[in-house]
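Quick start: read one record
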Amino acid sequence: MFCPSGASLSTPYHRNSFPGKEVQESGRRVTPVYLSETSDRTFLKSQLRVPVGVKEKAGDRPLCYCFGHSVASIKEEFRTKGHSDALQDIRAKMKDPGCRCETENPSGACCLGSVTKGIKIAQEELTTNDSEIGPVTTPLRSPSNRGERIAKIGTVFSAIMASACCWLPLLLLTIGVSGVGIAATLETYRPLFIVVTFGFLAAAFYFAYRPKKSASRAAHDCCPPVSAAEGITDADCCDSAQKGRFSMVAMNKVMLWAVTFLAVAFLLLPNYVGALIADRESSSDTVTESPFVTNTTIAIDGMTCEGCAVALEGRLKDVPGVLNARVDYAKKQAILSTKSCCPFPKDDVFKAIAESGFAGHIQ
């Protein structure tokens, strides 16, 4: 066994049944433990009076040779008591003339440093090695809700896209752009977006209301050993964990129902958008009745909501020669006012209707 610093000659003599010696190698002092002083014979680890194995990764791994503390015994303390009293025990016993590190410890020095490192090793192994501590349920670490978040976001997004044929023309109209052509294209994908919306919504409800996995242990089923070592009791840990978990579950369900309401509101937008813009009946210019004005009625095919009528109306008003235009979604027709002295701009009107994604014919 090689140590970074030299040990007194009394240490190796007490470690095995054969005398040891100090040698100089590569500028560092080392203490042979497994070598014979008078021959080339090598002694096995089992021949040591006290086992040595601080740097091993498994097994007992003695730390304090005076009072019998090891990594294994410290881990057992964590399992049974939730903390380790090894350091306190050693300090208390050191007050009595019971410390024999010079002769019992292979390093020939005080073991407090090794015990401190051993406690950290025991905590890490208990936390990471399931085979040592068995299945542990930690309510503080709630199951990943990434899938639930994706389902909620997908629900709202697909519902918005399903109703884009209605709200997009109105939005573009506010900035002076006709989006009827885009809306007509989106209308063809509306059934697909509706199906996707309900698919995401079903997934969101599954994640929110699926049975939760639960596991219990006789002890320490809430707090990990590290928390217990810091003085946090199982009751405190479990109570706070349960409260946090239930509040999070309740919040997720509230958010889910809010997302559901929002999705339904967007999906049904074509059915009530007319009520939202009903004031246009009074604010818009009425059809002019005058001997100098000719009103032409055109039947419009392809409108799916009141938003289409508003967008098309704005497009027809921009046609040269048209004094006024009024599109009635309920009757699926448009009434255009032109000067009686001038021919009706039929080609320009039907071109505007076609570019908007609709079809029309004069009634």
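The longest helix spans residues 234-267.
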